[in-house]
Each structure stands twice: as structure tokens, then as C-alpha cells.
Amino acid sequence: MNGRFSLRKRLRGVLHALRLRGPLAGDPMARMLHAFVLSVAVWLGVWAIILVPLYPSPPARQVGTVVQLMIPLGSMVLLRLGSLHSASAFYLAAEWMFVTFLLAFNDGIRSPFLAHYVALPIMASWLLGLRGALWTVALCMTSTLAFALIEMAGIGMPRPFVTPLGIWATLVQIALTGAIPVAQILKARNKALERVQNDSIELQQRESSLRESEARFRNMADTVPVMIWVSGPDKLWTFFNKVWLDFTGRTIEQELGKGWATSVHPDDHEHFFATYYASFDASRSFQMEYRLRRADDEYRWVLCTGVPREGIFVGYIGSCIDITDQKRAEETLRRSLQEIAHLNRVAAMGELTASIAHELNQPLAAILCNAQAAARFLSGASPDLAQVLECLSDIVADDKRAAEVIQRLRDLLKKGEHHASSVDLNEVVSDAIRLVRNDALLRQVSVEFEPLPGLPPVFGDRIQLHQVVLNLIANGLDATAEQPQGDRWMSVRTAKADGGSIELTVEDSGKGIANSDMARVFEPFFTTKREGLGMGLSISRSIVQAHRGQIWAENSAGRGAIFHCVLPVAQQGAVASAK
């Protein structure tokens, strides 16, 4: 047992020593070439051991065997030095020279050693690629042609040692030479077939999984209570669920592609496709409203949402929800809010009766005085026409002033739709302060206005913004009522806010807002006044939010409350309103 174990250990040591080492130890190509030349060297060594006792003479045979044995050993040395290309070229070149030498002394072109020229290109294609194989083929063809020419010229070739054992050994070596590339080709073919088979199985599994996934998606899409659609990479719609088909009353064949677009309201075509194509080209989500014809030919408002499908953008998965009833409810609510806002303006006008009367009395009294003065100038012996003309000019100016007051009151009191445009906020605040000026004098409240010069216009409805300012100022006047005389004041300011917006600030000297009431100050019907309705600030918030603005309240550092109202400038507001 010990001897057997020792022999096995020694054999393992020899094999370990013969392993490829150096920088090419991990290269599979180098390891394969090393295994090949090692097998050739082992075979030649065995052949030499058999050849020497059988053919002790001539000595040239032993020399040739040693030379041939040096070819694979030289390749092994070059492999250990780290040069795969040099080892391959050395083996091929040395093998070609040795075979050519054998042919020269063994019948030339009629020698069986010529079969070596068949194995060399095979080896070259494996080691050096197509180009090396072509060069090897050219070299072997040239050598074969040279031997053929020698044969045709009648030049005799010496035949010193051709033996059956030598021919057999040559054929074995040729077999060894071609064995590895042939095995590699077969192995590569088997791997390719295995990959094709695995890919086919994997493809079938993916197709099966995809079909199952599509079936699950269709089942799910048909059960949800919303209209589902899917579009492909060509922007065409490729799927509609049952809810969509039931809504439009059409078949899926009629809807596929762009067929569904025939149900879109003609007035919404341009807006819909502009939004859809722009979002598709940018690979982003979108949401928009448009009218879609129902099976009973009624156009219904739908909210359409498109979300990019997972992974690389190849289209959308979208949904449509019928929002007609919601829009009708919103329209009803909007009209109700307009009615409430109108009532609020009427109530405000009732509270400001004294101020309104004062605004009208001033120009009317001036008209009366100027008319009486003109009459006196005309009743004299020599009428002063210049003075009369001046009085008439003043009468015209006062009449226009009274007409402006009446027109502003009519605008505030009238019902109906309002229209958004560029509005000078400083002018709106000045008109509102002018309207409450007499009321402020009666309450002994000092109202100061600090307008920002060159303030950009805001985008909105002038009447609604006038109502907001009037509500905030009226709220401030009421807040200062409990303060002692001489300590009642209000400050109204306009300024630029962050983001290019405009900020209106209304500050009063009242007692401020209780912390418990701060969160409810803009709620409908919430008021701290005995005779208040609690609608002024709520209506103001609705108007500001409709103008894409913000409004909030806070207590000042000293005392009193500060109301902030931020509105977008004309250009920003117009863009937001369009959206």
C-alpha cells in the first residue's frame, strides 16, 4: 500500500510539474495548446523508446526522433514565457520544416508523410485563425508543387529509412495534430446546438409567460370600472377594454389604430392630438380633458390619463373617466359662488352707503356751484364769457367723475360672467380706498396706501379683484373699531414677491386673530363679528385661488392682523389660465 501510494504521489508530482505556469496559466487557448504539445511530446517519447531497440541503426533515425521531440518541447517553453502566438508559430514552422525534410528523403510527393501538409492548415486555423491558415495552406501548396516539379524533372530522391513503424507513427502524429481542433469544432457545435435548444426553450417559456400576462391584464382591464387603453411605439392605440367598448358602442376592430378618434368631439381634436403627440415625443405622462361620444351619441367629458409603459418607452397605458356629472356639479357650484359673491358685494354696498353718497355728493355739489356761478356771470351787463367757459369745463369734469362713481357701482352690483385681463393692482386698491374713504373718516380710522411704483399688472378679473381688496379693507376697518380713537389705523401695501408674483398686504391695528381661530378664518360662515355673515374672507379666498394665487393671514409682531394676497403677474397668470 505504501509503495502504491508513493508511486501515485510521484505521478501526481510529475503531472503537477508539467502544468502550464506563468502569465498564460489562466488562458484557455494557451492551456489547450499546452495540453496538445504535451501529448505530442509524450507520444514521441514513447515512440523513441520503442524505436531505439527495434532499429539500433542508422543513428540518423535517432537524431530525427530527438529533433522532432524538440518541436513540442520548444512550444512548451515559449508558452511558459508567456507568448501564445510565438509558441503557435514556432510549432507550425518547425513541424513544416521537419515534414519537408522527411519528404525530401522519402519519395517526395509520393511519400505518405505528405499527409502532414493536410494536418498543418487545420492546426493553423485553430491556433492563428483564418489568415494564419491561409498562409499555411499557401506554404504547404508551394512545398507540394516544388516536390512535384522535382518528380517531373526526374530527379531521384534517396530512400534511406522508410519503415512501416515510421509510417504508422507519422499517421498517429497526424491524428494527434488534428484531434484537438476537430474535438473543439465538435464541442463548439454541441454547445451551439445546446444554446439554440436552451434559447428555444427560454423563448417558448417567455412567450407562454407573455401570453399569460396579457391574459391576466385583459381580465383585469375588463373588470375595472374605468376605460382602459394601450398605445404602441407607433403612437397608434392597440387595446381597449370592455368598459371602453361598452361606452362607445363600437367593436375593437373599429377602435384600433386611429379608429377611436372618430368619437372625439371635433372641437377637441386639435387640442387632444397636440397634447398627445407632444407628450409621446417627450416620453412623459399626460392628463387632459376632452369630449368623447357615447353609444347614445351624447358627447361626454372624460379625463384622459396616459402613463409610459415600464422599461424602454414603447407607448402608454391610459385610462379615461367620465367626468361629465362632476363638471356639471362644478359649474353649478361656480354659479352658486357667483351668486354669493354678488350678494356679498350688494351687502358691502349697503354698509358703505354713506361713503357712496359722499362720493356722489362731491361732484354733484361742484356741478351745482359751477352752474350757479355761470348763471351769475351771464346775468351781468357785460357777461364774462371766459369765466362762463371755465365753469362749464368744471361742470363737464365733475359730471365725468360722478359717472365714473356710478359706473364702478354698477360693475360691482351687476350679475353675469366676468372676463380676465391685465389689471393694475395699484389702481384697484386706490379705487377701493376711495370708496371706503368717507366710512373710514366716520370711524376715525387712518388708511395709508403704499403703492410700489412701476408695479407689473396682474392677470385676472378687475371686479373680482376689487371685491377681494374691498373685503380685506372692510375687514380691517371692523377690526379697529374696538381700539381707542387715535390708535385706529390701516396700512395697505403692494410689492413684488418671489417668483415674479405681486403681493398685496393689508395690516390693521386691531386686536389680532386668536390662535384657535387662525385655521378657520377663511371658512364659510365663520365670523367673530356680531352682525357678520362670515362670507367675505371665504369669497376672497375662492377668488384668489381661481386666479392661481394664495391668500393667508397672520398676527403682526406688535398687535393686529396682517392679510397677505399673492397673485401671478399678467403673463404667468395667462399661461396658468390657459392650462
Explain what this protein looks like in three dimensions.
The protein is an alpha+beta fold. It folds into four domains: 13-191, no CATH class; 224-322, Beta-Lactamase (2-Layer Sandwich); 328-417, no CATH class; 421-427 and 437-579, Heat Shock Protein 90, CATH 3.30.565.10. The protein is built from 16 helices and twelve strands. It has helices at residues 2-18, 28-54, 59-81, 84-104, 116-152, 164-223, 242-248, 252-255, 269-282, 324-351, 353-379, 385-413, 425-442, 462-479, 536-546, 570-578, and strands at residues 227-231, 237-240, 286-293, 299-308, 316-322, 421-423, 446-450, 458-460, 489-496, 502-508, 550-555, 561-567. Strands 2-1-5-4-3 form a five-stranded antiparallel sheet, with helices on both faces. A five-stranded mixed sheet has the order 7-9-10-12-11. A two-stranded antiparallel sheet has the order 6-8. β1 and β2 (237-240) form a beta hairpin. α11 crosses α13. The longest helix has 60 residues, at 164-223. 25% of the residues are buried. The model is unreliable at 1-5 (pLDDT under 50).
Write the layout of secondary structure elements.
Layout lengths: L1 H17 L9 H27 L4 H23 L2 H21 L11 H37 L11 H60 L3 E5 L5 E4 L1 H7 L3 H4 L13 H14 L3 E8 L5 E10 L7 E7 L1 H28 L1 H27 L5 H29 L7 E3 L1 H18 L3 E5 L7 E3 L1 H18 L9 E8 L5 E7 L27 H11 L3 E6 L5 E7 L2 H9 L1
Features:
579 residues; alpha+beta; 4 domains; 5-stranded antiparallel beta sheet; 16 helices
